[in-house]
């Protein structure tokens, strides 16, 4: 059994026009929402063995803040350049390449690819994933290469606005 948490980065800032899209930081709401969703995931017993993040500043910051709430060492976050700008098939490749010994993985990235990826795998339709939103899926398989909608179970879909 494999469990995948598909997490969109928290809300980012558009305040710094001189920064590239890649370098945009989280804004105040994002800095609050990432730990919030991390605490909610922790209360559900979520404990990823591997966190894979986009290299974008906002994604790494989200990974760090969520990971902290889950007891995950930020130095262990795996950065995969393909996530930034990648499509749903690229995200599938990233996950399929995960070593078989990992049972629980969290993937942190960007829309629209992230929502398309979740819908490609989920037996239930997921709307556009909001910032700091997470979709959890379990797969009845031994290898990450085998994950598909056919062996997927929808676990939950959560996001910070559920707690306002």
UniProtKB/TrEMBL annotation:
Residues reported to bind substrate: 58
Residue ranges the record marks as coiled coil: none
SUPFAM superfamilies documented for this protein: Phosphoglycerate mutase-like (SSF53254)
Alphabetized Pfam families for the sequence: His_Phos_1
Protein known as: Histidine phosphatase family protein
Organism of derivation: Pontibacter fetidus
């Amino acid at each position: 059994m494999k469990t995948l948490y598909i997490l969109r980065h928290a809300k980012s800032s558009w305040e710094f026009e001189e920064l590239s899209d890649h370098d945009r930081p989280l804004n105040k709401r994002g800095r609050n929402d990432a730990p919030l969703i991390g605490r909610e995931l922790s209360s559900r017993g979520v404990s990823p063995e591997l966190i894979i993040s986009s290299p974008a500043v906002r994604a790494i910051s989200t990974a760090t803040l969520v990971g902290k709430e889950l007891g995950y060492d930020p130095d262990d976050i795996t950065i995969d350049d393909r996530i930034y700008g990648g499509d749903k098939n690229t995200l599938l490749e990233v996950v399929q390449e995960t070593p078989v010994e990992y049972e629980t993985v969290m993937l942190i990235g960007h829309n629209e690819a992230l929502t398309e990826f979740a819908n490609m795998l989920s037996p239930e339709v997921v709307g556009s994933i909001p910032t700091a939103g997470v979709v959890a899926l379990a797969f009845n398989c031994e290898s990450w290469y085998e994950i598909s909608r056919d062996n997927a179970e929808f676990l939950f879909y959560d996001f910070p606005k559920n707690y306002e």
